[in-house]
Specification:
It comes from Snodgrassella alvi. Pfam families: AA_kinase (PF00696). It catalyses: N-acetyl-L-glutamate + ATP = N-acetyl-L-glutamyl 5-phosphate + ADP. Keywords: Amino-acid biosynthesis, Arginine biosynthesis, ATP-binding, Cytoplasm, Kinase, Nucleotide-binding, Transferase. Catalyzes the ATP-dependent phosphorylation of N-acetyl-L-glutamate. By secondary structure, the chain is of the alpha/beta class. The protein has one domain: Acetylglutamate kinase-like (Carbamate kinase, 3-Layer(aba) Sandwich), CATH 3.40.1160. It is built from 9 helices and 16 strands. The strands form 5 sheets. The protein has an 8-stranded mixed β-sheet, with helices on both faces. It has a two-stranded antiparallel ribbon with strand order 3-4. The protein has a two-stranded antiparallel ribbon with strand order 6-7. Helix 6 packs parallel to helix 8. The longest helix has 28 residues. Bound molecules: adenosine-5'-diphosphate and N-acetyl-L-glutamyl 5-phosphate.
Length: 303
Amino acid sequence: MSTDSSISLDTMEASTKANILAEALPYIRRFSGVTMVIKYGGNAMTDPQLKESFAKDVVLLKLVGIHPVIVHGGGPQINDLLQKIGKDNQFIQGMRVTDNETMNIVEMVLGGCVNKEITSLLNQHGGHAVGITGRDNHFIKARKLYVSTPENARQDIGQVGEVESIDTALIEEMVEHGYIPVVAPVGVGEQGEAFNINADVVAGKLAESLQAEKLIMLTNTIGVLDKNQQLLSRLTPADINALIADGTLQNGMLPKINATLQAAMHGVHNTHIIDGRVPHALLLEIFTDKGVGTMILGQNEQA
Ligand SMILES: Nc1ncnc2c1ncn2[C@@H]1O[C@H](COP(=O)(O)OP(=O)(O)O)[C@@H](O)[C@H]1O
Ligand SMILES: CC(=O)N[C@@H](CCC(=O)OP(=O)(O)O)C(=O)O
């Protein structure tokens, strides 16, 4: 038999849950029918329970009428395979140096194992997910990317691409028919060749091309951190330039922040970098009053 205190604890718990649902209602109404691009970083997809919670969240978004479009990474998963075959991992400004053999591994890991694992997880949880790469229907056209370093203004890092154009028709068609697109960041060149594109870059450009309502990057930090490892919850373009110039933003955060900023400046109103290690981070960001992580503001917005 329940004691009085257990009844009140149960009641409190139920009331908290009811409050959370009530808080979500205006957001569900506001976001019904909109597209959200969600970047699922390779570093955020290491724990099986977190993967489950991510899949459940995405399916829930679809069920309440939001159109999630997933772009995934897989950097750590590529590193593992390259290490197994005795190849070094080299990155310049967050971009993997990609020779032809590495390109084959990248495409195998991203377009194969990682893409199919995410797609399958979403389907297991009741979604209708379809995995594709930019080579499908040649929907992500790419050209060779050169990076500039202090020593070299135009450094060749192999088969790394930047997005030349995205044909959104395939994605829009899929969304319209109730599917959840799961995109691996591999693009196609003029000769039909594969290009390794950083997943943050693809997510940003796709959000821009779709004029998505939100771009959410799930990663393995609480957001963008300052020099003292404190969370920066809102960043303007000027803040970002200063943080890049003084070296606070480095490595994998560079393509992420640049891609997010470009999207914010080109019509994507809500752009966030959030902690994918927190269970249900997506739901917290989308359906609660208190957003999580770092929000990136476009040019005309105020911090
Ligand atoms: N100022 C910063 N704030 C947060 N993370 C940073 C910062 N500068 C560099 N980083 C690095 O960026 C990483 C996230 O990028 P990345 O490893 O490419 O993740 P993902 O796989 O999610 O794309 C963080 O784990 C951190 O090591
Ligand atoms: C050019 C380039 O760097 N491509 C990335 C593509 C995967 C990726 O971006 O994965 P994360 O999102 O997990 O970092 C790479 O080869 O690692």
